[in-house]
Write a structure and sequence with these properties.
The protein has eleven helices and 13 strands. By secondary structure, the protein is an alpha/beta fold. Strand 5, helix 5 and strand 6 form a beta-alpha-beta unit. Bound molecules: nicotinamide-adenine-dinucleotide (NAD).
């Protein structure tokens, strides 16, 4: 197949592009390199079946051009990261809503299949675990910027399903905290790259809040397998949780990373308000119900956290330090 990957120079996108090429597909990558890096694609940049285009999903005519002849679009281009969400709400809202709308509008007349990268953030503060695909979304006030990313992605999902009702083949995947080599090396990085970078440097490992919040960290290879499984048209008009259901607290994660990287770093605690300002709200716990993905996609995550962290730490030791800007 000829496949377009938007955001293909990013963390998840670059792994997806590599895997699609290794499966024999032809891939067009569209990325504005706002957080993605060409070096993430260095192994495939000259691959005969790969074309890289630097540009934005917000440029409609360019998007129209690169979508031509593609049977599938994996739409991953997005503005993300909690810090971005809190500090640049307009960028997050416009970047996520306008880009997705362009992708869907241009895919529709061609009936190009769209696989849209959504997020576990859409479940918000719901405390009823595990999250099933049809669980309620419980978000805070619109006066709190923190919820604008979850809201934008949820509206994107509504766009997807509205187009699906009109006959566009669309599948939505909700990722649960993906990690691995190349994970969010930017300044808006996630907790695993931050802890690893701090542990390797011997700097304090900074836990926000009391560290008792829990997450399910999913190794990138599992994330990619679940994503690619959605290509089949039997998954049109469906949404799937893509993650792992092993829970770990941020305190446990900090200790594990310290141990696995053989670090002398201290673990310190920083109140949310000194990082994200007064009134910041976090999602206390997050865990996917994977029964639908297991049953319909035949998706089963296989990478245990210790194994995934070892591979990620090894990558950071080799590549990551100079690219990181840890907050
Ligand atoms: P990332 O920042 O590494 O990747 C996003 C990519 O999109 C970057 O390469 C960036 O340069 C590109 N981009 C941003 N705006 C663009 C635009 N207007 N036009 C073209 N390219 C643009 O982040 P990621 O972690 O790889 O996330 C990929 C997707 O998965 C996103 O849609 C994100 O919302 C979703 N997601 C990720 C996670 C996670 O744990 N990493 C969790 C839930 C959802």
């Amino acid at each position: 197949m000829r496949i377009l990957v938007t955001g293909g120079a990013g963390f998840i996108g670059s792994h997806l592009v590599e895997q699609l090429l290794s499966l024999g597909h032809k891939v067009v990558t569209l990325d504005d390199l706002s957080t993605g890096k060409l070096t993430f694609l260095q192994d495939v940049i000259n691959h005969p079946n790969h074309v890289f285009v630097r540009g934005s999903v917000l440029e409609r005519s360019l998007l129209n051009e690169v979508m031509d002849g593609c049977e599938v679009v994996f739409h991953l281009a997005a503005v993300l990261g909690v810090k971005n969400t809190v500090e640049n709400p307009l960028k997050v809202i416009e970047g996520n809503i306008d880009g997705t709308r362009n992708v869907l509008e241009l895919a529709y007349p061609r009936k190009t299949k769209v696989i849209f990268a959504s997020t576990s953030e859409v479940y918000g503060k719901n405390e009823c675990l595990p999250f099933r695909e049809d669980s309620n979304r419980i978000l805070g006030s619109t006066k709190k910027n923190r919820w604008c990313y979850a809201t934008a992605k949820a509206l994107d999902e509504h766009f997807c399903f509205a187009y699906a009702e009109k006959g566009l083949p669309v599948t939505v995947v909700r990722y649960f905290n993906a990690y691995g080599p190349r994970a969010n090396v930017s300044q808006y990085g996630g907790v695993i790259p931050k802890f690893i970078t701090q542990a390797i440097a011997g700097d304090p490992i900074s836990v926000y809040g009391d560290g008792e919040q829990t997450r399910c960290f999913t190794y990138i290879d599992d994330t990619i397998r679940g994503t690619i499984a959605c290509i089949d048209h039997q998954h049109n008009n469906e949404v799937y949780n893509i993650g792992i259901d092993n829970v770990i607290s941020i305190n446990q994660l900090a200790k594990k990373i310290k141990e696995l990287s053989d670090s002398n770093s201290q673990i310190i605690y920083i109140p949310y308000k000194s990082v994200y300002g007064e009134g910041y709200e976090d999602t206390p716990n997050r865990r996917p119900d994977l029964s639908k993905a297991k049953q319909k996609l035949n998706f089963q995550p296989t990478t245990k956290i210790d194994e995934g962290l070892r591979k990620t730490i090894a990558w950071y030791r080799k590549n990551g330090m100079e690219n990181s800007s840890v907050q």
